[in-house]
Amino acid sequence: MPSPRTLYDKIIDRHRVMPLNDVEGPGEQLLLYIDRTVLNEYTSPQAFSGLREAGRSVWRPEAALGVVDHVNSTAPDRTAAAPDEDAQRQIDYFARNGRDFGIEMYDVLHPRQGIEHVVLPELGWVVPGLVIAAGDSHTTTYGAFGSVGFGIGTSDIEHLLATQTLPYTRLKSMRVTIDGAVAPGVTAKDMIMAVIRAIGAAGAHGHALELAGDAVLALGVEGRMTICNMAVECGARVALIEPDEAVVDYLAGRAKAPAGSLLERARRSWASLRSDDGALFDRDVHIDAHDIAPMVTWGTSPDQALPIDGTIPDPAALPAAERRDAERAIAYMGLTPGMALEAVKIDRAFIGSCTNARLTDLRAAAEILKGRKVAPGVRAMISPGSSTVRREAEAEGLDTIFTAAGFEWRQSGCSLCLAMNDDVLAPGERCASSTNRNFEGRQGTGGRTHLMSPAMVAAAAVAGHLADVRRMPRP
Amino acid sequence: MTGKGFSRLTATAAVMPAANIDTDVIMPKQFLKGIDRAGLSRGLFHDLRFDAQGAPDPAFLLNRPGFEDCRILVVGPNFGCGSSREHAVWGLLQYGIRAIVGTGFAGIFADNAANNGLLLVSLEAEPHGRLAEHLAARHSPVTIDLEAPRIMVDDLVLPFDIDPRRRRAIMLGLDRIGETLAHADAIRAFQTGYLAGSPWLA
Fold this sequence. Notes:
The complex is a heterodimer. By secondary structure, chain A is an alpha/beta fold. Chain A has two domains: 1-293, Aconitase, domain 3 (2-Layer Sandwich); 295-471, Aconitase, domain 3 (2-Layer Sandwich). Chain A has helices at residues 7-14, 45-54, 85-101, 116-123, 154-163, 188-199, 214-217, 221-230, 245-251, 260-270, 320-333, 359-369, 387-396, 398-405, 454-463; strands at residues 16-19, 29-33, 37-39, 64-67, 104-106, 131-134, 148-151, 165-169, 172-179, 207-212, 238-240, 283-288, 295-297, 305-307, 348-351, 379-382, 407-409, 430-433, 448-451. Chain A is globular, with a radius of gyration of 22 Å. In chain A, 60% of the residues are buried. Chain B has eight helices and seven strands. By secondary structure, chain B is of the alpha/beta class. Chain B has a seven-stranded mixed β-sheet with strand order 4-3-2-1-5-6-7. Chain B has one domain: Aconitase, domain 4, CATH 3.20.19.10. The interface between A and B is large, with 76 and 51 residues.
C-alpha cells in the first residue's frame, strides 16, 4: 500500500521531469513541468528581452496567453490609448512580443480583455491537476480548480518560456479546515481574511496551503477563487481546494475547456485529485465558521484585520513583537486606538481586482446598492474583473443599479488595486476596497486602504464610513 | 542580470527591523513602467527615502551619515512579501545591496534574489536578535563568509545554513536557463509522455 498523499504532492509528482537532489519530501529539488502560464505587460518585458539577447525561442507558445491588465485605463469609454507614454511603451512591446514569439495576446480592445486571473478561468483554460506559474503573486487563484498555481518573478518567466519547466523545491504542507457554515453576510473574502488574521502574514510561509471543510466546499468556484487568491497574503506560495462537481459544472461550455469524450477521460483522471484520508500535513489548523464575522483591515498588513464590530487596537495591549509595527500602522492610517471601526469615515469606495470583481461579487454589491445612494463626498467606482464580466453584469442590469446609486461603472483592469494606471488615491485619502493589499502607498502614495468584501464596500459607500453589512439588509 | 559572484563580503550593514516590508514599499509602482531594468536604484524605498519634493529624508536610515556604503541589510520577518515584482531585487542590487540577513523571506522574493545573485541569509530568531542588537550598539562592518558559511562582526560569529544550489549560484553566478536546457531531451521526452496521458491538455 502506498502511503497516503496530499493533493499538492500528487500534482507535483505528476509534473516531475527529473530530480535535482536526493531529498524526499519537503526540500526535494526537482525540475517541474509547467502546463500553462499567463503573461502581463509589466512583469514580462525583460523576460522577452532576455530571450532575444540569448537567441532563445519559446518552448511551447500555445502554453502561454497574454493579457493587458495592469497599466491600462479603466475609463468608461474604452480606447486603445494608454494613460501615459510609459504604459503605451509596455503595451506596444507586449504586442510585439506576442507577434515575434507566437503567443496569443489580448490587447485592451479585445472582447475578452480583463484581469489575468479572471480571464483564464473564464476561458475554461484552468482545469484540475495543472501546474500554472505566472508573473503575478495572485497566481494562487487557480487552487480553486485543484491546480497548483504560484507566482514567479521575471527571470523565472524567461526560464519558463525557454524551457517549459522551472527548478522547484517541494514545499511543506499545511491544511486549514473551516468547519460548519458561515452566518448570513459572511463571504469568502471574510473567510480568507479571518484565516490571514488567525495565522499571520507569514503564517503559511514555506507551505502549500490546502483549504478544506464544509464552509469552503459550500462556496461556488468564484468564492473559492477569492480564498485561494488571497492565500498568498498569509505567505502561502500555493493554495489548493480539492476539485469537485462544482468545478466540472463551472467548466461546462467554456471556450477552451475540454468537452465530450476528452472531458469524460479528464474527469476520470481528476477523481484522484484529493488528499488521501490519513495524509499527513506538516501543520493542521481548524477554524469554526460560526466564529467568522464580516472583516475589515485597520492597518497596513493584511493580517491587521478585525471583525467590523471591533475597535482599533491599543498597541500597548499587543504582544511586544507586534507593538512597534501596530503603532506605525495606526499612525500611517490616521486612526486612534480604541476608536470603533464603524466610526472610520471614508473618501473612496472601490470594487475591483482579481480577488473580488467577478459576477457573483458584483451581484452581492448590487444587492446592497439597489435603491440606495452613495453618501455625499464619497467617490465610488467599480472596475469589473473582465470585459466578459462587464457584459454579463450589463445583461443582468447590474450596471443600472450601480450608476443609479452613484458608482462609476468602469472598464476592466487591475486599476486601483495597485494604482499602476491613473486610478490612484490622493495622499491621505481613505478607501474601502475589495482588493487584496493594504500596504503603505499601495493605492497611491499616502493613500489609506481598508480591505473588505464587495458587499462591505457597498455598505461603506452608502454609510460614508466603515459599516456592518449585516445591519444593512436588502431594502 | 546576475550579480558578480562572491564568496566573501565585508561591508556596512543597516538594520531595518519592521516585519512584513513588502515589495510595494521596496519598489513603488511608479518605477514599474519600464521595459528594461534601468533606473531602479532611485526607486529603492523611494517613498521612505525621499520627501514629496524629491529631497532625501534625513531621518531614513540609509540617508544617515555612516550608511553611504551600505551593502548589507538586516531585516525583520517576512521581508519581500506581496507583489512578485522582480524590480524590487533589481533595485536593491542597483543601489548596491549585495546581501540581506533576516529570519525568513517571502517565497517569490527569495527566488527572485537567487536568480539575480542577491544573497539572502536566514537566521533563527535568537542569533538574528543578537546580530541586530550588536549592530545597534556598535556600527561595525559585517563580514559574510559563504565558504564557512558564517556571519562575523567584531567578536560575534554566527554560522548559518544555506541551500547548496543557491550558495553555488551566488559564488559562481550561473546561467540557470542554460543549465536547464542541458536537459532539453529529458524535458521533451517527459512532455511527450505527459501529453499522451492527458490528451485534454495537448
